Amino acid sequence: MTAKKNRWMIIDGKEPFIIITSLTFAFAVLIALVVFLTFAIVEREQLKMQSEAERAFNSVFLALQDSTSKALQTMQEENISGIGVYSSVGRKVLSLGNVPMTIPLDRVSSMQAMPKDGSNTGTATYNSETGMIEYIRFSRLTILLDTGELTLTENGLLPAPIDFPDVLYLHFDGKTYHHRLVVIMIIGIISTFTLIGLFLVVLSIYRNNRRYRETLAKQESLVNLGQAARTLTHEIKNPLSAITIQLALLKKTLPPQHTGDLQLIEQEVKRLTQLTNKVSDFLRNPLGTPVTVDLTELFSTLIRRFEKPIRFKSDVAVQIVIDEDRARSVFENLLKNAVESSANGDPEVEVQITIDKRNFVHIYVMDRGDGIKAEDAKKIFDPFFTTKIHGSGIGLSISQQFIKARGGNIRLYAREGGGTVAEVVLPRSIHTVKLIGEGKK
């Protein structure tokens, strides 16, 4: 049974790592898929644009075989503003519409760096200012040029040097194409960020659910503990009452040599009585009867009860609204833990009180003791958990209940340089008096 429980504890401990890793991997795959699809669609649009440019180029040249007017009409139908044929050095050989006289050499050089075996489909450049696309590619077919006044030589050859047509140029409206690309990129970016946001939401939901499960499990254990504690305290108090009565009778009847034994019994009875009273405090209403409590007066009274010196420092004398008995129980328990925190030597206990900008009071009980072990940090507020030989482990649990009932919080953490800090945060009352006070016992 123990081995099975330990196995489940190990699995439960690894659950966050497994779940978070799985979620991260799944969403990373989805995001990668969205990015891949976005670029695939963009590439498809580019190929589609190049295909339309090729089709338009061919349509115009076929129409040009009939007449220039038919070619111009075809250009208008295809939203083409200019079409041209250029030599390999970028000089215009043939053109219709609005095209430049020459193509920049860098554009031609980049084209010449590409293969002329037909695998190249050309390059397209979008001008955001004019909304036009310039499409350039090598000529794959022999274009018959009207030689005009050129004549053949005696041996039937054309005079040299002549630059034959090498580059095709197309200038057409690209607003629709650019709009489609912008829409695709926007959808891709929105989808990516949506997936990231969804991942964060799912991760937050998982963490909240895990926290709720832990809280629910703790509450269930507290309910079970409360039921058992009520029964135990009731069953313990009755025998303690009988023992106390009998102890009083024994003090009167037994000889003086038994006084030491009777005192030992009486001390143990008192310790059990105090423990049952603490358990009763833990189970009943933790809020109590809130009244105005001056923290300076409270700590001045409490530090006198300890033999070891306790430094007290506060920039303000603060009054808070809290049940006086419960406040005394909380801070006395924290001071006691701090005083007993060092096995050897003075723990150098110090108390500081500050107020933050949100009008919350922060009470720090600090020591230079042995500190809290890392494995004990999460269990420090669990009922009946203690690292002391003679401790009951109920003090911090009761203190946490009292502070949370008042709308505050309590936490313990390592102090810089060694030791422990117990920080209590409570809502501040309206009245505050400016004061610089420091006490030492």
Task: Give keywords.
five-stranded antiparallel sheet; 3 domains; seven-stranded mixed sheet; 8 helices; alpha+beta; Helix Hairpins; Heat Shock Protein 90
List the helices and strands and how they pair.
Elements: H1 2-66, H2 68-77, E1 80-87, E2 92-97, H3 105-112, E3 123-127, E4 132-138, E5 165-173, H4 175-253, H5 259-283, E6 290-294, H6 295-302, E7 310-323, H7 324-339, E8 349-355, E9 360-367, H8 395-405, E10 409-414, E11 420-427, E12 432-440
Parallel strand pairs: 7-8
Antiparallel strand pairs: 1-2, 1-5, 3-4, 4-5, 6-7, 7-12, 8-9, 9-11, 10-11
Write a structural description.
The protein is an alpha+beta fold and 441 residues long. It folds into 3 domains: 1-110 and 122-141 and 163-173, no CATH class; 217-283, Helix Hairpins; 290-440, Heat Shock Protein 90. The protein has helices at residues 2-66, 68-77, 105-112, 175-253, 259-283, 295-302, 324-339, 395-405, and strands at 80-87, 92-97, 123-127, 132-138, 165-173, 290-294, 310-323, 349-355, 360-367, 409-414, 420-427, 432-440. Strands 6, 7, 8, 9, 10, 11 and 12 form a 7-stranded mixed beta sheet that branches. Strands 2-1-5-4-3 form a 5-stranded antiparallel beta sheet, sandwiched between helices. Helix 4 (175-253) packs antiparallel against helix 5 and helix 7 (324-339) packs across helix 8. The two termini are 53 Å apart.
Please mark out the parts with pLDDT under 50 across 5 or more consecutive residues, or reply none: 1-11, 141-163, 430-441
Q: Tell me about the biggest sheet?
A: 7 strands, mixed
Which of globular, elongated, flat, extended, rod-shaped describes the shape? Answer: rod-shaped
Report, as a whole number of angstroms, the end-to-end distance.
53 Å
CATH architecture of the largest domain: 2-Layer Sandwich
CATH fold group of the largest domain = Heat Shock Protein 90
The share of residues in helices is 40-55%
Oligomer: single chain
CATH C-level class of the largest domain: Alpha Beta
Number of strands: 12
Strand residues, percent:
15-25%
SSE order, one letter for each helix or strand: HHEEHEEEHHEHEHEEHEEE
Give the full name of the CATH homologous superfamily of the largest domain.
Histidine kinase-like ATPase, C-terminal domain
Number of domains: 3
